[in-house]
Every structure is written in C-alpha cells, then in structure tokens.
Amino acid sequence: MTGLVAAERGLGETAFVEALPEVVVVAFAAVTHLADPWFLFALLAVGYWFASERVAGSPRRAGATAIAAVTCAYAATALGKAWFAVPRPPGAMPPADVPTWLPALLSGWYEAQVLSDGFGFPSGHATGGAAAYLAVALLYDRFWADRARYLAAGAVAVAVATSRVVIEVHYLVDVLAGLAVGAGTVAVALWLAGDPRVRRSASAETAAGPTAALNPAPAFLLAAVVSTGALAVAVAGGHTGEVVEAGIGIATGAGGAVGWRLVEGDEPAVPVRVAVPALAVTGGLWVGAYALAGTLPVTLVATTAAVVAVVALPALPERVEALSDARN
C-alpha cells in the first residue's frame, strides 16, 4: 500500500518555503506548538474541567466529546502513518539550519522543531489541530457567535498546517490530508456521540442545546479500535515508533471510555483545589508514559491511568463528599 502515496510527493512547495525570510520560518516554528499533542490535550482537559454553561449547554459532555474526537483523530493518524509508511521531506532530517541570529537559548528549541523523524503522511499536527479546534468550535456553542468560532478554528488549523510545511517537516499533501482527516473524524465522533446536528435530529432544539445528551464513550471506543488496527499494521511492518503511538491510542481510547462510566455528565466545574493536584498527577503520568516509551506495557498502564483520571475527575468531589457523609 505504500505506493498509494509517493515518497517524493512535493508540489513545488519546498522551493517556495526555502525562499522565505528566516524570521518567518522561526515564527511558524512557534505556531506549530498550537497543535502539539501535549498542548491540545491540556487545552481540552482545561475546557472539560472548568467550562460553564456560558460556553456549552452541557459543558462536561461537550468537553469529553471534544477529547474523544481528538483521540479518534490521532488514532486515524497512527493508522495512516503505519499504513502508507512514507518518509518526511529531506528538510526534516539533520543537520538543522539554525539561524545564526537566534539566541543560544532558542537555538535548541528551534532545532527540535525543524527536525522530525517517523513517517510523514498524514500530518499529525494538521490532523490534531483541525480536529481539536473544529470540535471546540462546534461543541462550545455558546461561546462567541457561530461564525466567529468557525473562522477562528479554521484560521488556527490552517496556520498550524502551514507551519508544518514552512518548517519543512511535511509536504503540502500531508497537511491537506491531515486537515481532511481531522474534520472527518470530528464528524464521525459527533455522530457516534449522538450529536443531533450530525444525525439531523429534532432534539437539537432542546433548551440545553445539542450537547445535552452527548455520550462520548462510543467515540473513545472507536479510537481504541482504530488504534488496535494501527498497532497490527505497525507490528506487521516492523515500525517500532508507530507501535508505541498506536499503543498510546489504545490506552487513551480505553481510558476515556472507562473514565466516562464514572461520570454522570451534569457535574459542575472542577474546583481549583482538586484540579491543581490532579493536573500534577496526570501530567506526571503522561510524562512517564512517553519517557518509558521503550517499555510498552508501562506506557499503556500509565497512559490509561492518566486518561481515566482526567475524564473521571469531575465526579471526584461529589464522590469524596458522599464517602465522607457515609463515614459520619
């Protein structure tokens, strides 16, 4: 199947980006952080924990569904990269051409941004960015006007996709595919979650809006299933890096589904006194999962625990209070 996407798939964009001023490339190296996986999941977790009814009729259901949609997007990316197994542009390989005017403190950061290994199609940043910002625009439907949300989401997604081409870690074809896959997985995830706008149901007109009855569990499970397929393809192809990514996808999908079973869906925002230590714990688990990526079972356990904790956290204060009352 590798032949379906050519290794040399550039459309002339390399010559264009190489003619850009260095300051433009450096600026886009910063823009690309807007779709780093750690940034997107932190953004989505904060929205899930703290959003109020001012931004969504059912903020917990909306937030969990956004996380599930992005999990599906990354699962699709893992499958695509393992399936097509085509390289990145030559510019993603060392040595990096670091601008001489950059301060020493930023040189290492810049080099880390413009060097990237692994396969190139589709772009994970373009896929994740499109999925995350589109999901937020659709699900947090009381924040700003519809047009403003959609324009903002599209602008950020396109900016991130452009950044991946400008810093030469992806071809244009890679990011266009990523944008399409990201948007498509959001549509599928919302359909599975029961979004009446996607299913064209009259219940979209309820007072609580289209997020009132969302159930993200099926979307989380789909992510786990697709990631399992990605794992099988990666193992068959001997792609070690993609094996780890697929394993993390399985753990994230399964952890999300388990965590949601502990939540009613109508919980209030998480108190800051609970969120701060929870963020430290879950962040530590995430870091540990990636640091120990060479030990797949440990990575799977740490990732699953982190995701269960993130998704189940809104239910924790009420359960602790109920347990305290029972003891008294």
From TrEMBL:
Q: Give the record's membrane topology.
A: Multi-pass membrane protein
**What InterPro entries does the record point to?**
PAP2/HPO, PAP2/HPO_sf
* Top-rank lineage group of the source organism: Archaea
Q: Where is the Phosphatidic acid phosphatase type 2/haloperoxidase domain?
A: 65-190
Q: Where in the cell is it found?
A: Cell membrane
| Record keyword Cytoplasm present | no
Q: What is its main location?
A: membrane
Q: Any transmembrane segments, and where?
A: 23-50, 62-84, 119-138, 150-167, 173-193, 214-237, 243-263, 270-292, 298-317
- Extract one GO cellular component term from the record: plasma membrane
Name the UniProt key words of this record, in alphabetical order: Cell membrane, Hydrolase, Membrane, Transmembrane, Transmembrane helix
Q: Which Gene3D superfamilies match?
A: Phosphatidic acid phosphatase type 2/haloperoxidase
One Gene Ontology molecular-function label? hydrolase activity
| Entry-linked PANTHER family | DECAPRENYLPHOSPHORYL-5-PHOSPHORIBOSE PHOSPHATASE RV3807C-RELATED (PTHR14969:SF62), SPHINGOSINE-1-PHOSPHATE PHOSPHOHYDROLASE (PTHR14969)
Under which name does UniProt file this protein? PAP2 superfamily protein
